[in-house]
Amino acid sequence: MNQNQKNPYAEFSISERAQALVKAAEEDLIPVFARIEATEYSNQAKVLHALQREKIALHHFTPTTGYGYDDIGRDALDRVFAYALDAEDALVRPQFTSGTHAIFTALAGLLEPGDCMLSATGRPYDTLEKAIGISGDAYGSLRRMGISYEEVPLTETGCINVEAVVFTLLQTQASVVYFQRSRGYSWRNALLPETDLATAFDAVRKAKPDCIIVVDNCYGEFTRTSEPAAFGADVEIGSLIKNPGGGIAPTGGYIAGTHACIERIAERLTVPGMGREVGSYAGSYAPFYQGLFLAPHITAQSLKTAALFARAFEACGMETLPSSDAERSDIVQSLRFSTAEALIAFCRSIQAASPVDSFVVPEPWDMPGYTSQVIMAAGAFVQGSSIELSADAPIKKPYTAYVQGGLTYAHGRLGVMLALDALWKLNICG
Question: Which domains, and CATH codes, for the chain?
Answer without folding.
Answer: 10-43+293-425 (3.90.1150.60), 58-285 (3.40.640.10)
